[in-house]
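Re-run with default settings, no changes from the original entry. Doing this only to confirm the output is reproducible before filing.
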Amino acid sequence: MQVLVLNGSPHFDQGATGHVLRPFREGMEQAGATVETFYTKKMDVSPCLGCFTCWTKTPGTCVQRDDMDELLPKIGKSDIVVLATPVYVDGMTSTMKKILDRSIPLIHGFCEIIDDHCRHPPRDILNQDGKIALVSVCGFAELDNFDPLLYHVKAMAKNMHREFAGAILRPYAWAIPPALKMDMDLSELMDALKNAGRQLIKDGQFDSDTREMISRDILPRETVVEFLNAWISENLERDTD
């Protein structure tokens, strides 16, 4: 099974997204998947021009020549596309959004009524048996901070004719390294992330117990706020020195 991971974190593997993605990817590989990761910030991808040339004059081909030439066929053919992104202003990072905007050559410009909704039919390059999964982290403690992003990705999956396999959501994932320094036992969380990767490959989805274990509180919400404010205060002091 071919899995394409798009890591939208500007911190690559070193940020909160990377801390969550690492065991998740390990679980997918343990289940036998071939996993290829692209870091969206490292890619030379220009914004969509909104010219619709990929639907009219050069159907299926964007007029811009950049790293999407390599990435677009991989998005189309992969069995699973994993979108991994921190929550930025209630959505995904801008580098991730650019790539998804530039993926419209995978669908036709014509419209049809599909499942009682106006949609663009897929081109042959698009694997309609494929799935899309979301892995996301946010700074705050409440799960509803993921709601706008989750709604967006579900809608995108439907328009890209792929099944939405589910989401792995980890609030205040930035607290994982400090929690480990405090000698907190996070082995259940790490095991759950690996298990989620295995489940995605073997079952095509995540079970509720695994999702709940990954999203569970590891610190009181008041402590989360204290940590966030302490980090801001520390960096403000550095800026004024």
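The CA atoms of residues 79 and 130 lie 4 Å apart. The chain has a mean pLDDT of 94.
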